[in-house]
Specification:
The protein is mainly α. It contains 16 helices and 2 strands. It has one domain: ABC transporter involved in vitamin B12 uptake, BtuC (Orthogonal Bundle), CATH 1.10.3470.
C-alpha cells in the first residue's frame, strides 16, 4: 500500500510538471491580446481556487468571504508600492503575511460554529471588510488607488509592451498553490484535515486537534489568496473595494473548485479552464444586449454540470485524478 501511494504521488508530481510546461508554452504561438488576457485570468483563478480548495476542499470549511483576503493582499502590496516605494515582488510577501493573519483573525471566532453557520459568518465578515474599505479614506475609500507606472520591471511587476511576462507570473503563482495542495494532500496535515471534513467528532476522538487544523488550513489559504490579490492589483493597475472585495468575487473564487471537484488536485484547474472562458465569452458575445442572456446561459451551464457531475468535472478523468486513493489511505 505504501509503495502504491508513493508511486501515485510521484506520478502526480510528474503530471503536474508536464502540465506546467504545457501551460508555459501555451501563449507562445498566440498573438491576440484578448486571448492572452483570457489565459492569464484563467490561470490566476485556477490558483485562487486552489488556495480556497485548501480550506474548503481538504478541510471542509466552506468560506464565502475569501474576497477579504484577496482584497487585503491587493491593498497591502499596492500601498507599500505607492507610499513607500517597496516593489510588489517584495510587497506580495507582506501581502501574504497579512492575508494569513486576517484568516486567523476571522477563523478565531468563526470556527466556533460549523457548517452553514460558518459559511454565513464568512459572508458577514467579508461584507464588513468591504464596507470598511469603502469608507476608509486612508486607503482611497470608494475612489480606489491607481498604481503608478514606473517603467517595465520584473521586481515591480510592471509590463506595458507584452502580456507574456504576466503569463509566467500567474503560472508561477498557480504552480505554487498546486504544490502546496500536493504537499498537504500527502502529509499528516492532509489526513487530519480530511478527517475533520468527513466527521469532526470522530476526528477529535482519534486525537486530531480540530480547531488547530481549521486555523492552519485557513492561514495557508488566506496567505495564498492574498498573494493572488497582490498580483491582480499590479496586473490591472487599479483597485477599489468593488473590484477586489466584492461578495461576487467571494463566490467566483471557489466556483472553479466546486465545478471541477473540491478536495482534488486538478479540480480547480479543470473548473477554471471551463468556467472563466465560458464566463468571458458569454459576456463578450451576448452581454451587450443588456437582457442578461449571457448570465442565463452561464448559470444554466453551471447548474447542468452540477446536476450531471456533482463530484465535479475532474471525475471524468478517472479515479487517479480524483485522488480517491489518497482519501482511502
Amino acid at each position: 500500500m505504501a509503495n502504491s501511494i508513493t508511486r501515485r504521488r510521484r506520478a502526480e508530481l510528474l503530471s503536474g510538471a508536464v502540465v506546467a510546461l504545457a501551460l508555459a508554452a501555451l501563449p507562445l504561438p498566440i498573438g491576440d491580446v484578448y486571448t492572452q488576457n483570457l489565459i492569464i485570468v484563467t490561470i490566476l483563478f485556477a490558483g485562487l481556487a486552489q488556495a480556497w480548495n485548501i480550506l474548503g476542499g481538504y478541510c471542509g470549511q466552506i468560506s464565502l468571504g475569501h474576497a477579504l483576503y484577496f482584497g487585503a493582499g491587493a491593498y497591502v502590496s499596492t500601498l507599500l508600492f505607492v507610499d513607500l516605494g517597496i516593489p510588489p515582488a517584495l510587497g506580495m510577501l507582506a501581502a501574504g503575511a497579512v492575508g494569513g493573519a486576517a484568516a486567523l483573525l476571522v477563523g478565531w471566532p468563526c470556527f466556533r460554529v460549523s457548517g452553514h453557520y460558518y459559511a454565513i459568518a464568512t459572508v458577514v465578515v467579508g461584507e464588513i471588510g468591504w464596507v470598511l474599505f469603502l469608507n476608509w479614506d486612508l486607503v482611497g475609500g470608494a475612489t480606489g488607488i491607481y498604481v503608478p507606472f514606473k517603467g517595465e520591471s520584473w521586481i515591480a511587476l510592471q509590463f506595458r509592451t507584452a502580456k507574456l511576462p504576466w503569463h509566467y507570473i500567474v503560472l508561477a503563482y498557480a504552480t505554487l498553490t498546486w504544490l502546496a495542495a500536493w504537499l498537504i494532500e500527502g502529509s499528516r496535515w492532509g489526513f487530519a484535515w480530511r478527517a475533520v471534513k468527513d466527521d469532526m467528532v470522530a476526528a477529535r476522538s482519534l486525537g486530531v486537534r480540530v480547531f488547530a487544523s481549521k486555523m492552519a488550513a485557513a492561514a495557508i489559504s488566506g496567505c495564498l489568496t492574498a498573494v493572488g490579490g497582490a498580483i491582480y492589483a499590479q496586473y490591472v493597475g487599479y483597485i477599489d473595494p468593488d473590484s477586489v472585495m466584492a461578495t461576487s468575487l467571494s463566490i467566483l473564487i471557489p466556483l472553479p473548485a466546486v465545478l471541477g471537484g473540491v478536495g482534488t488536485l486538478w479540480g480547480p484547474l479543470v473548473g477554471a479552464a471551463v468556467l472563466i472562458p465560458m464566463s468571458e465569452l458569454t459576456r463578450s458575445y451576448l452581454g451587450g444586449s443588456g437582457s442578461g442572456v449571457d448570465l442565463m446561459i452561464y448559470g444554466a451551464l453551471i447548474v447542468t454540470v452540477a446536476l450531471l457531475r456533482p463530484q465535479g468535472l475532474v471525475s471524468l478523468l478517472g479515479r487517479r485524478a480524483r485522488g480517491d486513493d489518497a482519501r482511502a489511505a
